[in-house]
Design goal:
Blueprint: E1 2-6, H1 10-22, E2 26-30, H2 33-42, E3 47-51, H3 59-69, E4 74-79, H4 84-92, E5 97-100, H5 105-136, E6 137-138, E7 141-142, H6 146-159, E8 165-168, H7 175-184, E9 193-197, H8 203-211, H9 228-231, E10 236-240, H10 247-259, E11 261-263, E12 270-272, E13 276-281, H11 285-290, H12 296-302, E14 305-308, H13 319-329, E15 337-338, H14 340-348, H15 354-367, E16 373-374, H16 381-384, H17 395-412, E17 418-419, E18 422-423, H18 424-442, H19 447-453, H20 458-467
Parallel strand pairs: 1-2, 1-3, 3-4, 4-5, 8-13, 8-14, 9-10, 10-13, 15-16
Antiparallel strand pairs: 6-7, 11-12, 17-18
Length: 471
Amino acid sequence: MRVLLVEDDRVARVPLRDDIAEAGYDVDEAGSAEEALELLGKKGYDVVVTDLRMPGMDGIELLERIKAESPDTEVIVITAYGTVRTAVRAMKLGAYEYLTKPFDNEELLLLLERIRRMREVMEENVRLRRRLEERYRLEDMVGKGHKMQEVFRLIRTVASSDSTVLLQGETGTGKELAAHAIHELSPRRDGPFVKVSCAALSRELLESELFGHVKGAFTSAVKDKPGKFELADGGTIFLDEVDDIPLELQVKLLRVLQEREFERVGGTRTIRVDVRVIAATKVDLLERVRRGLFREDLYYRLNVVPIRLPPLRERKEDVPLLMEHFLRKLGAEGRIEMTPEAMKLLMDYDWPGNVRELENLVERLVVVGAGPRVGPEDLPPEIRSPAPRERGPSLEEVLRRQEELERMIRMLGSSEPRLGNASFEEIVEAKERELITEALRRTGGNKTKAAELLGMKLSTFRDKMKRLGLA
């Protein structure tokens, strides 16, 4: 342990320095506060022992400077009987302890020993915390339950290979983090990691985004542009929401997976790439295959190594651990403590937005200055008083209804036969209205989540709402 002794009286300083050194501490000495600050700027000290009254800068000002610049450094103040009141002020400013003159040097050595033991305990706690973090986290993913531990095991296992991985899980479960972890643990870690959101672009834009285009391929193609597959050469491409890739583009993607080659939009030159593909979906991709919305051969090419990311409601034991992780990430560790009542509400809540919802909650608590103790009254109303969960139709039931509707449309074609007193078009609209209304009810009116529930793009969902008079 490194100790700095600050005392202007050399006669008092030298014997005290020798006793500290003989006790096994690495000790430096300074004859003034100014000299002490110069040494502090060059070296780090665990403890500063300083006299209170010195010419020039006194011990109080030195204490304030030390705590401002090195808050982890402990300060012991030495004072005369007549300045005990000032010593009490020093304690309020963060001094560890004070000694009144005259004192036995053994008193100081006992204080130093107490600080040494305290720091050893703190360092051991840090080592234990790091060990736990290594066990319970992978890159930025956190989890101690058996489900997440299995996810970590699969990620570590598959990372060393070039196999295609299909990440499955609800929105907010950490699919992008998992993809990034696979890349960072792989031999391709020094190569690029390129992300593509397949749901955010139209068919034309997505094709250009993935495969690039040549000048003149379409009106706005004023120059050649490489696609994401070219940019990911030597690294990893992450295809988020791969289920939204249009059928006509799926053929081209299948070729890249099989042959590792493609042509740019409007081009004739074949481009070869060395890319590892990781795809993600929030829906049952095999169900989409059964409904004819996704190619079966592409599905099996993507589903070489499937990894399911569990929703937070299935691993609530990770909620406290995740909260600590997000507080540390925000630089707010130790600033917020949940009361037992508040923590019980968090553990009882179903977290429909998954880990992302929990992260947003922690950030909100930090930003609004909640704490240091957070009670139920500090939590959002949906967590304090969750609405009764009515049992609506399952997602599979909703998809089955939609499949029936699509089958009717294919059977009847574009004609408008009369079925009883209703036309085909009226029956279709009634069925669509029923599905959309049910999806909105189940998601509390959230259009984005309702669209996800029905397996639609948000833009398509909104168009249908407007056409049916539900907007």
